[in-house]
């Protein structure tokens, strides 16, 4: 109710001060006027007569088909998943679960392979070898490795011990030496 009264008062104020009349009079002073025919004509629908380039679509389709063929030929295991000894492998899309029964305990490893593929070398390492000279260009494919974050659950006697594991950012290995 208060909003309705406020709106009514604003409209009455606008009538009294002739704001609209001043506004429209400044618009009509423009150097051009729209003719009566143009004012009566309202386009029903606008359209574009731009011609599309079908060759670009064909080129894109050809390129994508070649890429799919290259991806399929680069697969190490195209028909079935690799087996890991003593583990049962289960997949649900990108989620992979490895399960193994050991006596009264159970070991479960879970990981997701989405967005985890990295080249074996970084871009800088790929450009330069250990002596600082550029590597010769060869046509051998880059070896990709998946390094996902994974969890290891050890379940024994109703108790579970979980580890969240990930790979180190650099590919250099390190050795842990045990004392004693």
Automatic annotation (TrEMBL):
What GO CC terms are in its UniProt record?
Answer: mitochondrial matrix
- Taking the record's annotation, the residue ranges forming a coiled coil are none
Provide the species name.
Rotaria magnacalcarata
High-level lineage: Eukaryota, Metazoa, Spiralia, Gnathifera, Rotifera
Which region is the signal sequence? none
Superkingdom assignment: Eukaryota
Biological process GO terms, please? cytosolic ribosome assembly
Listed name of the protein: Uncharacterized protein
Could you say which protein family the record assigns here?
Answer: Belongs to the MAM33 family.
- Specify where the region named Disordered lies, as residue ranges: 120-148
What InterPro entries has UniProt attached to this entry?
A: MAM33 (IPR003428), MAM33_sf (IPR036561)
Q: Which SUPFAM superfamilies match?
A: Mitochondrial glycoprotein MAM33-like
């Amino acid at each position: 109710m208060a909003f309705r009264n406020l709106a009514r008062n604003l409209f009455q104020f606008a009538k009294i001060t002739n704001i609209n009349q001043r506004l429209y009079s400044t618009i009509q002073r423009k150097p051009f006027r729209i003719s009566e025919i143009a004012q009566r004509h309202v386009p029903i629908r606008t359209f574009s007569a731009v011609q599309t380039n079908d060759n670009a679509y064909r080129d894109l389709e050809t390129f994508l088909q070649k890429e799919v063929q290259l991806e399929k030929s680069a697969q190490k295991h195209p028909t079935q998943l690799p087996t890991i000894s003593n583990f049962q492998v289960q997949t649900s899309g990108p989620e992979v679960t490895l399960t193994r029964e050991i006596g009264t305990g159970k070991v479960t490893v879970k990981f997701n392979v989405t967005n985890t593929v990295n080249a074996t070398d970084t871009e800088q390492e790929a450009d330069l070898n250990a002596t600082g000279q550029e590597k010769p260009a060869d046509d051998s494919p880059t070896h990709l490795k998946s390094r996902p974050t994974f969890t290891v659950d050890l379940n024994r006697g109703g108790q579970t011990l979980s580890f969240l594991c990930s790979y180190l950012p650099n590919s250099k290995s390190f050795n842990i030496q045990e004392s004693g």
